[in-house]
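Input record (one chain):
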Amino acid sequence: MGNVKNNIKKAVRHVSKNHVLAVSIGFVYVWFGALKFFPNTSPAKELAKNTIHSLTFGVLPDEVSILLLATLEVLIGALLMLNVLKRQAIALAIGHIIFTFTPLIFFPLESFKAAPLVPTLLGQYIGKNVIILGALITLARMHMPLSSENIEHKS
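The corresponding structure, as predicted from the sequence alone:
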């Protein structure tokens, strides 16, 4: 039993705290992205289609847009979980998560019971992305420090 405990402690120490954060965000991205590949499984699928339709002025067909979005989300998640191309994955995720807030502007009647402080369930679904954005910014600061931060740390 003592050996198992020691092995677990070593494994936990080995995984950096920022990688745990990346894996947890990546897991959510893979899960929610994968749901969009299947009919009637993602509560956000219709909202995503409508939002992309508005953003692209209908140039991109809805079925194509949702497949591209699902692929992007799964890709971001996989990169974060596997710790591959981390800077690029974080940049893609930050760009993506910012766009998840556009329904609040495009569809305020669906997002709020009484704007801006009383969100609908859909508005709450979007609002929780503030947490993901904050975590992504934390990861970005760890992996993409500003040049002035580099200078300060080297001194």
